[in-house]
RNA sequence: GGACAGGUGGCCGAGUGGUUAAAGGCAGCAGACUGUAAAUCUGCCCGCGCAAGCGUACGCUAGUUCGAAUCUAGCCCUGUCCA
């Protein structure tokens, strides 16, 4: 269908929409007024990772289309402890940790959104502010009567778990109620009219919509994004080193840049639409590049995403480092560096020290497998000693990971 | 509370006394090919040690045994059914 509102047109043409509750209704609303819309985020770690980037961009689009983004931090729900872990001993986070996490995560949002007091300025809220005050009995009275277990059992999140005969705790079961409560609360007190989220949030969103309607007759809307997978079927944002974190102190800009530079050919267009502000015509051009030409599009992708998330400077340095390292065979400023002691260092220690191997055994295997290089030359001798040198020595694991040994 | 099934390496999942650091798959790392892509093929994939080897590991604890992931007891946890 064709939309009249700038918001839905934007979301549609860039590929953010998976499901919507009432497309016409939302379209009409977005065409006539500023729509405050929110997305919820976890506060379990000091940084979000690439998996949350679609949602963050979605809030950015909302603002671009002239609406008001509301970032909901799950300070309250996190405080209860994340129940999804299979090991029960998932530790509960302290209030201080959660608050620190939220502060850290906020710095990233500030790059993507304009915060402030204006009508379309972004705001960040914390559901601990209202959930924390809520007594259990009160919660049961307020919202418990509006949920039937019959219906809750039909939601995918519950149904799948039961079908797979995996445990679902009562706490988890309650999450959907708490999340529904969030939506209602924001609708009632903040005029929020829209909740967005990943496709796995559909059930929660619908619950909030129902709750708002039943309690106060407020009409609110929901949009979900498609589940993002890479073209080869993997989850977004997993690499050798683990998650691709958005915060600089959790993942260096160069590694962040490399993540995008190494995107699958088939994902380039999709990623450009979702994660950059480039105009669609430009994206269409980049996406149509064939063969090795598409590498240029990947560089653009990496530059744009890094610029948004880490800033102009970080993107430039990362790109320059990549150019020098790969094209020039040299050393870029952003590569990891460790000290080359005056009396040299074993290759094994160097590999472990710089983080290319997690243990000495792993370093040895890397060497034995022919993946270790010193100044571009493959070394297969496990006992190899890197002699002291006046100049920087380049050390590599495979063809992509490079680092610098710098004389003290 | 009772009956039954189960808890294995990052994940899934074999293994029911030794030859098992534990099949197979996924994920991951490296090599070849290429374009810092994909697909494919090859090697690696608990830690320490140059090595022989040592240490740790199959829910927890205590046993049986020359020897246990495998047997016994107790406990904890999960699922299914019954109360």
From TrEMBL:
Residues spanning the signal sequence: none
Keyword field contains Acetylation: no
Major site of localization recorded for this protein: cytoplasm
Function: Catalyzes the attachment of tyrosine to tRNA(Tyr) in a two-step reaction: tyrosine is first activated by ATP to form Tyr-AMP and then transferred to the acceptor end of tRNA(Tyr).
Protein name: Tyrosine--tRNA ligase
Key words of the record: Aminoacyl-tRNA synthetase, ATP-binding, Cytoplasm, Ligase, Nucleotide-binding, Protein biosynthesis, RNA-binding
PANTHER family: TYROSINE--TRNA LIGASE, MITOCHONDRIAL, TYROSYL-TRNA SYNTHETASE
Subcellular location, record wording: Cytoplasm
Positions that bind ATP: 238
InterPro entries: aa-tRNA-synth_Ic (IPR002305), Rossmann-like_a/b/a_fold (IPR014729), S4_RNA-bd_sf (IPR036986), Tyr-tRNA-ligase (IPR002307), Tyr-tRNA-ligase_bac-type (IPR024088), Tyr-tRNA-ligase_bac_1 (IPR024107)
EC numbers on record: 6.1.1.1
Catalyzed reactions per annotation: tRNA(Tyr) + L-tyrosine + ATP = L-tyrosyl-tRNA(Tyr) + AMP + diphosphate + H(+)
Family statement drawn from the similarity comment of this UniProt entry: Belongs to the class-I aminoacyl-tRNA synthetase family. TyrS type 1 subfamily.
EC main group: ligase
Superkingdom of the organism of origin: Bacteria
GO cellular component, one term: cytosol
Motif window: 'HIGH' region: 43-52
Location of the motif 'KMSKS' region: 235-239
Keyword ATP-binding set for record: yes
Subunit details: Homodimer.
Gene Ontology molecular function terms on file: ATP binding; RNA binding; tyrosine-tRNA ligase activity
SUPFAM superfamilies per UniProt: Alpha-L RNA-binding motif, Nucleotidylyl transferase
């Amino acid at each position: 269908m064709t939309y009249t509102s700038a918001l839905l047109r934007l979301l549609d043409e860039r590929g953010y929409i998976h499901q919507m509750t009432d497309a016409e209704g939302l379209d009409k609303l977005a065409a006539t007024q500023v729509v405050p819309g929110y997305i919820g985020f976890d506060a379990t770690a000091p940084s979000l990772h690439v998996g949350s980037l679609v949602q963050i961009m979605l809030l950015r689009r909302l603002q671009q289309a002239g609406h008001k983004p509301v970032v909901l931090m799950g300070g309250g729900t996190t405080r209860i402890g994340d129940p999804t872990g299979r090991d029960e001993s998932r530790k509960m986070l302290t209030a201080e940790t959660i608050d620190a996490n939220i502060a850290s995560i906020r710095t990233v949002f500030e790059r993507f959104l304009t915060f402030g007091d204006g009508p379309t300025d972004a705001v960040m809220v914390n559901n601990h502010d209202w959930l924390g005050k809520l007594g259990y009995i009160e919660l049961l009275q307020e919202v418990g009567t509006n949920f039937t277990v019959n219906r809750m059992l039909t939601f995918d999140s519950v149904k799948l778990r039961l079908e797979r005969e995996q445990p679902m705790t009562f706490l988890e079961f309650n999450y959907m109620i708490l999340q529904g409560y969030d939506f209602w609360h924001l609708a009632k007190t903040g005029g929020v009219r829209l909740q967005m989220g990943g496709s796995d949030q559909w059930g929660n969103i619908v619950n909030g919509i129902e709750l708002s309607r039943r309690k106060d007759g407020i009409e609110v809307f929901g949009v979900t994004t498609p589940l993002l997978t890479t073209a080869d079927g993997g989850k977004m944002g997993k690499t050798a080193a683990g998650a691709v974190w958005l915060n600089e102190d959790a993942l260096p800009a160069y590694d962040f840049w490399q993540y995008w530079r190494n995107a699958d050919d088939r994902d380039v267009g999709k990623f450009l639409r979702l994660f950059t502000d480039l105009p669609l015509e430009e994206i269409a051009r980049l996406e149509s590049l064939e063969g090795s030409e598409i590498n240029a599009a990947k560089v653009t992708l990496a530059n744009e995403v890094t610029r948004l998330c880490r800033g102009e400077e970080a993107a430039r340095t990362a790109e320059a480092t990549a150019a020098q390292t790969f094209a020039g065979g040299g050393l870029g400023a952003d590569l990891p560096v460790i000290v080359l002691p005056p009396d040299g260092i074993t290759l094994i220690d160097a590999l472990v020290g710089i983080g290319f191997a997690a243990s000495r055994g792993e370093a040895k295997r890397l060497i034995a497998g022919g993946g270790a290089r010193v100044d571009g030359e493959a070394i297969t001798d496990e006992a190899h000693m890197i002699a002291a040198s006046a100049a920087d020595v380049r050390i590599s694991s495979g063809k992509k990971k490079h680092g610098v040994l710098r004389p003290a």
